[in-house]
Amino acid sequence: MPARGTSSVILLMRQTGNVKTIQRCSTHSLLKNLPIALYFVAGDHDEYEIESQIGPAYKVMREHNFDVAMRIVSGVHDFSTWRPELPDALRFVCDKLSRPELAGGEQAQPGK
Questions:
Q1: What pLDDT, in 10s, does the model give residues 33-56?
Q2: CA-CA distance, 60 to 28, in Å (whole number)?
Q3: Which of 3, 70, 60 lies closest to 31 in space, CA to CA?
């Protein structure tokens, strides 16, 4: 586990032809290149007070230009509260899907 305030270093290995390359990158630079989209939904009567926890996460993600949406809806912490949001959540996330960019601007290819 990295110390507080530091970012992890991830080693990525990819193969081009017969050459394998290992690249060091921080989690921050890796996340900047990944197509991440999150859709938060919380009930306004959630017994875990999730709405107060997702607010700060939503704010930080917006500040770093991630695709993120947050909905506080009437309800508690159960699927009957989230179910009506599922079509919008899937539409939002699926609209953001793309292949991640590798260092150098290349597109990642399936199975490589």
A1: 566 788 999 999 999 888 888 888
A2: 13
A3: 60
